Hints:
The chain has 362 residues and is mainly α. It contains eleven helices and two strands; from the N terminus they run ααααααααααββα. The chain has one domain (7-361). It has a two-stranded antiparallel ribbon with strand order 1-2. A hairpin with a 3-residue loop joins strand 1 (329-330) and strand 2.
Amino acid sequence: PKANSSRFYRFLMCTHCVGSVLMVFAIVKFCVEHITNLHLFLTGLSLGLGFATIIQKIICLTIYRDNLFELHDTLAHTFAQDYNNVEMKPILMSPFSTFYRPSQVMVGIAWAGMAMYWSVPIVLILVQLSKGESVIKYGLPFPSSFPWPISTNKWVYAGLYIFEVYTSTCLAIFTVAVDSLFGYYIFQISGQLRTLSHRIQNLDSRDNHRKVIIECVSRHQTLTRCQESLERIYGPIVLWLSVASAMVLCALIYQAAHLNPNKAIMVVPYFVVKAGQSLFYGWCGTALSAENDHFREAIYASDWAGSGEKALMTNILIMLIYNKPFVLKACSVTTISVEMFIAISNTAISYYFMLRTLEETK
């Protein structure tokens, strides 16, 4: 995040947001026009919710802009303190690959999915040209409907195609960037919790126990405030994501069940991205809670009870009192954990069977 963004930077953000809004309107128009066709309606709904999610993320990050800067600067400062320590650096960086690899996988799948959506209209046009069709039918990458026809004017079509490629590029970039930023902050907090655990477990008789424990308590309180800021910023995003993902996954399951295998493969990348998003957020929340639990276990394992040193025992008890559990919540509605992903999956499947029941009754 930039504290002093330029006018051009702010103009770009507004352009991205306006483009996503226009795309949502075009998809909503498509859904209204095909409201009697459940398959086409759900196709538009699943993608429309994706673009709506980008708008919601931009709004949330704008509202909590100051909190985001404070969180970013605080974690950068405390992280640098451990990173510049030769002994602590390997421990601090130990969870890096655990968070980095899932982000890279999500980036690859997201761009592969976008490439598939972009290529389908071009392939269809090339097929028509190879067959010598006199009238070419132009299709767009996404199920959208605009107030003007596109089949009669190739320049209008080219403009709309470029517009949809641009908005979908914004969709992919914002999705992977905002989600990866969440994982980055969780990595920073988790790494610092590991360094705190190491310091407590390796307390030496020559160390100033009181000084070390005061530093650990102070750092843990700072990380607690960072966790609260992270919850405040990302709580609305995760809450919206949990609701939208259940609907999108349901729609994608329905589409895949009603398409032949060759066409159903188009649904797979988007399905993996939405399911992976929910799992990634939930897994990050669980990982943070687990690291804090490990820190508490390190406190208990420091042999403070049998040391016989009253000062050490008093300091450890103070640390135990201040060690609050790290449980991320989405607007105090749901806990951000792997259980959230399971709940989303169960909800999506329930919605799908409800749609099947409605179909059978008709």
